[in-house]
Write a structure and sequence with these properties.
By secondary structure, this protein is of the alpha/beta class. The chain has one domain (9-225): 3-Layer(aba) Sandwich (Rossmann fold), CATH 3.40.50.10320. Helices cover 35% and strands 17% of the residues. It has 6 helices and 7 strands, in the order βαβαβαβαββααβ. It has helices at residues 18-32, 55-67, 85-98, 113-129, 178-186, 199-214, and strands spanning 9-13, 37-43, 70-76, 102-107, 153-158, 170-173, 219-224. Strands 3-2-1-4-5-7-6 form a 7-stranded mixed beta sheet, with helices on both faces. α2 links the parallel β2 (37-43) and β3. α1 (18-32) packs across α5 (178-186) and α3 (85-98) crosses α4. The radius of gyration is 18 Å and the shape is globular. The termini are far apart.
Length: 242
């Protein structure tokens, strides 16, 4: 990845494996359409439960290759991620440099504090990215050499550790890319081993259930930061119950 490369999509997760679990199928299909995708982990996910230090990073690299995305890691600490001004600015800097059209992240309510934090960090980082004149603001020097950038859409996927959603704004049919998603997740032996191996079955069950709600085999659910707008209501796929 070049430092100044432009990306159509940036997907932020708290830890390596978060974006794969929540939106791996969606990202894989965007890559198949020719979109450029950057996955950003806020931390290295260390210490990993089932591996020594550094193993999870190599597995994250392998998972990115499977999905066809690029990957970078920010230097925050697993378990201690907080919504701070420096964290917001780090996200804003990536957005201003890579100028995505779409930004994805996970929506957490606090079961894992890191997952709650990443939601707030990205929401605030997206807002910071669009503002000019940071050279006049204390700590604004971290955005030196970048220009304001306003994304088109911010979407949230359902974090797998959180309570189920009663509703969502839209779902993506990921049936055709689901094997890639599973292969990417299985790359994380540092995470999904021992008593944690059963998590993959639970993730698959959620995607299958979401798919059943929209009439497909597997789907990933999303909420939007702001109301969705279409120029033609016929863009929506058919629903079994109208």
């Amino acid at each position: 990845m070049k430092d100044t490369q432009l990306y159509d999509v940036i997907a932020f997760g708290a830890h390596p494996d978060d974006v794969e679990a929540v939106m791996g199928g969606t990202l894989a299909q965007m890559v198949e359409k020719g979109r450029s995708v950057l996955a950003v982990d806020l931390c290295e996910g260390e210490p990993a439960r089932h591996a020594s230090r550094g193993v999870r990073a190599s597995q994250a690299s392998r998972a990115a290759q499977i999905l066809g995305v690029e990957r970078v890691t920010l230097p925050l600490q697993d378990r201690l991620i907080q919504d701070t001004v420096p964290a917001r600015l780090a996200v804003a800097r990536l957005i201003r440099i890579h100028k995505p059209v779409l930004v994805f992240t996970t929506l957490g309510s606090g079961v894992h504090p890191d997952h709650k934090a990443v939601t707030d960090i990205v929401v605030n980082g997206v807002f910071y990215a669009r503002l000019p004149k940071w050279e006049e603001i204390p700590e604004g020097e971290s955005l030196e050499g970048t220009e304001a950038h306003e994304i088109q859409r911010l979407f949230f996927g359902h974090c797998r550790m959180e309570p189920p959603w009663s509703s969502f704004d839209f779902a993506v049919d990921v049936t055709r890319s689901y094997q890639k998603k599973l292969d990417a997740l299985r790359a994380y032996e540092a995470v999904f081993s021992g008593d944690q191996a059963q998590l993959l079955d639970k993730y698959t069950a959620e995607d299958r259930y979401t798919g059943s709600l929209v009439g497909v085999q597997y789907a990933e659910a999303f909420k939007a930061r702001s109301p969705l707008l279409v120029s033609d209501p016929e863009v929506f796929s058919r629903s079994r119950f109208g």
